[in-house]
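Troubleshooting: if your tokenizer reports a length mismatch, compare your output against this known-good record of 101 residues.
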Amino acid sequence: MKKLLLSTVLVVALGLSFTSCRETENKADDMDDAIENATDDAADALDDAGKAIDDAADDVSDKTEGALEKAGKAIDNATNEVKEAGKAIDGAAKEVVGDDN
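Known-good structure output:
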């Protein structure tokens, strides 16, 4: 009777330990899946952030190009006006020199 009781207890203990190991293995698989999903989500977030940065850089580049083109045109216009003013000064100087002679 004693051997039967001890054998039964041993079989139940072994049965519970195998069941417990199986549950632990399932939990480990669930943990692996959770880690993999978190890693994928982080990678997706980094990709989205990279795309947002690229879009912002393109927008800044486009706006800067427009501003630089406008500045270049303004410089060209100012250069032309300075040349015309120089011609007018030369003409006025020639008139003044011509009046004195």
